[in-house]
Amino acid sequence: MSSDLSETHYHGGPRLYAGVLAALLVLTGITVTASYVDFGSPAVNVVIALAIASIKASLVALYFMHLRYDKPFLSVIFVGGLFFLGLLLMLTMIDAGTRASVPYWNSKPPAGGPAAR
């Protein structure tokens, strides 16, 4: 009697997981090193840090969450989610960069405060 549960699937091995671990450690080192480098503006620093973090998240999802060995549709959903996350973060950064500082409109001291005496 055959069952789908008894079917075995290849999910890498210790050597593959050690390689992914090494890649994650190298990318973490690159992230730490990049945090000390000024790339011209804070926005560029954030974009570089998010790009490295996205690569690390992709490695974790592909190998430790077994997306690489699962149905391709799930990988498309994952990549689509990363795309829209990046798009929304980019639009947020563009919007925040175009705004001027907000002035303090209510410059009067509160009633009954120290200036009212």
Structural class per helix/strand content?
A: mainly alpha
Low-pLDDT residue spans:
none
Order of helices and strands: HHH
* Helical percentage: 55-70%
Mean pLDDT: 82
Shape: elongated
What percentage of amino acids are in beta strands? under 5%
Could you state the oligomeric state of the chains shown?
single chain
* Number of separate structural domains: 1
Largest sheet: none
User: Rg to the nearest angstrom?
Assistant: 24 Å
Supply the number of helical segments: 3
First-to-last CA distance: 91 Å
Count all strands and give the number.
Answer: 0
Walk me through the structure.
- With 117 residues, the protein is an all-alpha fold.
- The chain has one domain (14-96).
- Helix content is 62%, strand content 0%.
- The chain has three helices and no strands.
- The chain starts with 13 loop residues before the first helix and ends in a 19-residue tail after the last helix.
Descriptive keywords:
single chain; 117 residues; mainly alpha
Strand and helix layout:
Elements: H1 14-35, H2 42-64, H3 72-98
Helix pairs in contact: 1-2, 2-3
How would you summarize what this structure contains?
With 117 residues, this protein is mainly α.
